[in-house]
């Protein structure tokens, strides 16, 4: 680095003038720079330690988590050593997630060799705002860690300030708002939460579960819990429904899907969901059940207890997967309900059995999926199926033969006369299982599973309330105007109005080919006007005009008018939806109830919450009253004291209302299920499963993982699929 020795010319005007004149004449100054000979002693090296083989700070913190008690798992103690600055930032960011604040990089120092020697990582609220009246989050918070370099190019903490001068985030929703926490994936967040919440004795899991259920029942008197235990008192099955679940089932329990694919808990118990659809076409949970096995007897117990909780009301239709045990239990417990297979489960292996056709013919997939998704006529479906087999030479395919033989259980044309509320698969349960993963961490103990499932139901309630709000305030745009649309806007919810308008739009493509005196109309699609084999649809209007039927069966399947019915009603200038074709479950008034519970109540709210609100309102009115006679005041205080004493006595002598079956011997207490030594579903012993295993092992040896993914039967964690592990964090 060059340094210049400049003579002191301040105050000497003659010397200044001479130097200036010389510069003008020669272009040079009267003094010359002198270079100082300095040797750079600054450190050089890589940005981080390379190949040390030492345990990282994050791995050490995870290993010692069990000994920390209530302290944070990732505590930035003085002297903590890191391999890189990024590792230190990740460590402090995980600590900030636990505590409830965000972080960012602060002041750093770099030497002449561009080698960073110091780094401050500070709270996001560090520093002062540019203007006092700005909406900045900066509060001059001093919380930070200071990092310096080690001799082997690592980093270590030399200063840690843990005090904050601002409120910390309390909930997960608040914590997610800090920008630095966007770098932490959800799997890591769940892992940290599990380390902290499960840093307790698992032996007391059943006690915590009982206590939690009792607390939930205290807040929600209508909640029901059913347990099935063995002779030793170990839980075999547990089913529960909240008061809100039971109220929803009253209004929307005509169609139920049931599936048991979710196994994320400490005991690897299958978790079954009873799911329906509300008047906003949203998935809603009616109940959850934990099972230790999936036999016919287990499903019979689950179905019978579910019906008992719901007052004996059986669904009109139940959708399950192809599990034979479920089908047998459904026939025994709910014989009058129509049982259908989940179309999603039936077709999920189409790629496995038809993979060679998919890859060989680019048009097959489009034609196959159009046939099974959009065709509603049985005749057209069967002709289309035969044509497809002939076109692609699939007449000998055993998978397609079996599908066609069982088509009445899953194919759409055979569903049209069966009311399914628009659901033709248990993918509602699948999507609910997918949403559960956001709330319930892996290997969660039972009490944590129950608590997180309750939070999941709160979220579903929030989504329902949001749709109610939009239905009240937001209009659905429509680019055509007919008399019947006005009535539909008045009665239907926003989502179902959208479905109505789509069918109304499609009705414009149909023409009335023939009419008769008895109210029959024959409709043909305009694209098939000159086709003698065109599909003709018959619509019949009742003489009193209070009902209209169609051969396509959409109304019987979904409870909404089809495009053919709407074509006739528009042709007749009908101003309202026929009385017999207005299904209440899709209207705005579907969930209104006069039994004291509101449909919008939270899952743990019930009549007790409503009475409490009314009591507070009455007390406030009395408190603001100026003149209360002495006699009324005395009697009022006596009544309040009597009610308070009764409430105390009830809470002190409160007994468990959890119904338990199988616990016959006195003195035996409830116990947790046994933790499995090997996770996963029991191994199948079928010939087909053995053949798949041989093929899978051969593919693994040859390095072909794509086929292994197709053969995987575990839809939650398909083999070969990328899943986040703790190793990525380490």
Automatic annotation (TrEMBL):
List the residue ranges forming a coiled coil, or say none: 192-219
Places the protein is found:
Nucleus
- Residue ranges of region Disordered? 644-730
Enumerate the spans annotated as SWIM-type domain. Answer: 537-573
Please name the GO terms of the biological process aspect recorded for this protein, alphabetically: regulation of DNA-templated transcription
- Output the Gene Ontology terms for molecular function: zinc ion binding
Which source organism does the UniProt entry give? Eragrostis curvula (weeping love grass)
Its keywords, alphabetically, are: Coiled coil, Metal-binding, Nucleus, Zinc, Zinc-finger
Protein task: Putative transcription activator involved in regulating light control of development.
In the record, the note on similarity to other proteins reads:
Belongs to the FHY3/FAR1 family.
**Chief location bin:** nucleus
Any idea what this protein is called? Protein FAR1-RELATED SEQUENCE
Classification via InterPro entries: FAR1_DNA_bnd_dom (IPR004330), FHY3/FAR1 (IPR031052), MULE_transposase_dom (IPR018289), Znf_SWIM (IPR007527)
* GO CC, any one term: nucleus
Q: Which Pfam families match?
A: FAR1 (PF03101), MULE (PF10551)
The UniProt regions of compositional bias labelled Polar residues, in chain numbering, are 682-692
């Amino acid at each position: 680095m060059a340094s210049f020795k400049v003579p002191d010319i301040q105050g000497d005007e003659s010397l200044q003038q001479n130097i200036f004149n010389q510069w003008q004449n020669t272009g040079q100054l009267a003094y010359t720079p002198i270079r100082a000979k300095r040797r750079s002693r600054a450190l050089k090296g890589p940005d981080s330690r390379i190949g040390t083989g030492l345990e990282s700070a994050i791995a050490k913190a995870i290993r010692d988590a069990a000994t920390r008690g209530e302290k944070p798992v990732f505590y930035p103690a003085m002297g903590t050593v890191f391999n890189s600055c990024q590792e230190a930032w990740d460590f402090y960011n995980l600590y900030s997630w636990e505590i409830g604040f965000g972080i960012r990089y602060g002041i750093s120092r770099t030497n002449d060799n561009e080698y960073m020697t110091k780094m401050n990582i500070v709270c996001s609220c560090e520093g002062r705002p540019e203007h006092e009246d700005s909406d900045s989050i900066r509060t001059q918070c001093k919380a930070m860690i200071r990092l310096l370099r080690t001799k082997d190019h690592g980093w270590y903490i030399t200063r840690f300030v843990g005090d904050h001068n601002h409120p910390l985030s309390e909930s997960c929703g608040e914590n997610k708002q800090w920008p630095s926490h966007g770098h932490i994936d959800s799997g890591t967040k769940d892992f940290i939460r599990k380390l902290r919440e499960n840093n307790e004795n698992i032996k007391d899991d059943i006690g915590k579960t009982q206590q939690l259920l009792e607390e939930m029942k205290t807040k929600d008197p209508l909640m029901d819990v059913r347990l099935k235990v063995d002779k030793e008192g170990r839980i075999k099955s547990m089913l529960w429904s909240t008061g809100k679940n039971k109220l929803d089932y009253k209004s929307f329990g005509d169609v139920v899907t049931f599936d048991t694919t979710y196994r994320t808990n400490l005991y690897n118990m299958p978790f079954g969901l009873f799911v329906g659809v509300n008047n906003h076409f949203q998935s809603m949970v009616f109940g959850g059940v934990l099972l230790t096995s999936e036999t016919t007897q287990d499903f019979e117990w689950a179905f019978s207890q579910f019906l008992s909780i719901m007052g004996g009301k059986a669904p009109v239709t139940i959708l399950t997967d192809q599990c034979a045990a479920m089908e047998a239990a459904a026939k025994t417990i709910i014989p009058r309900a129509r049982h259908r297979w989940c179309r999603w489960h039936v077709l999920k292996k189409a790629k496995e059995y038809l993979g060679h056709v998919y890859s060989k013919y680019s048009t097959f997939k489009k034609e196959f999926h159009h046939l099974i998704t959009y065709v509603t006529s049985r005749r057209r479906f069967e002709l289309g199926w035969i044509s497809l087999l002939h076109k692609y030479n699939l007449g000998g395919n055993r998978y397609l033969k079996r599908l066609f033989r069982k088509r009445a259980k899953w194919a759409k044309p055979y569903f049209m006369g069966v009311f399914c509320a628009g659901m033709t698969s248990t993918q509602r349960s699948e999507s609910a299982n997918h949403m559960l993963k956001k709330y319930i961490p892996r290997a969660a103990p039972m009490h944590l599973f129950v608590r997180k499932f309750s939070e999941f139901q709160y979220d579903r309630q929030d989504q329902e309330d949001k749709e109610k709000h939009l239905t009240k305030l937001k209009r659905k745009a429509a680019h055509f105007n007919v008399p019947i649309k006005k009535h539909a806007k008045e009665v239907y919810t926003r989502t179902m109005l959208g479905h109505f308008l789509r069918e109304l739009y499609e009705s414009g493509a149909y023409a009335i080919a023939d009419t008769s005196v008895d109210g029959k109309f024959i409709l043909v699609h305009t694209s098939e006007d000159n086709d003698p084999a065109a599909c003709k649809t018959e619509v019949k209007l009742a003489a009193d005009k209070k009902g209209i039927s169609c051969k396509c069966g959409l109304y019987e399947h979904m409870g909404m008018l089809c495009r053919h019915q709407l074509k006739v009603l528009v042709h007749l200038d009908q101003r309202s939806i026929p009385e017999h074709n207005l299904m209440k479950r899709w209207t705005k008034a579907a969930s209104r109830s006069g039994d004291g519970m509101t449909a919008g109540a939270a899952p743990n709210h019930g009549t007790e919450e409503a009475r409490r609100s009314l009591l507070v309102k009455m007390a406030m009115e009395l408190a603001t009253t100026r003149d209360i006679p002495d006699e009324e005041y005395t009697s009022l205080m006596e009544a309040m004291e009597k009610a308070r004493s009764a409430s105390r006595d009830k809470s002190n002598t409160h007994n468990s209302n959890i119904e338990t079956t199988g616990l016959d011997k006195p003195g035996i207490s409830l116990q947790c299920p046994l933790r499995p030594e090997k996770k996963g579903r029991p191994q199948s012993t079928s010939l087909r499963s053995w053949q798949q295993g041989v093929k899978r092992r051969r593919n693994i040896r040859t390095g072909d993982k794509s086929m292994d993914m197709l053969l995987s039967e575990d839809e939650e964690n398909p083999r070969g699929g990328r899943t986040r592990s703790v190793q990525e964090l380490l």
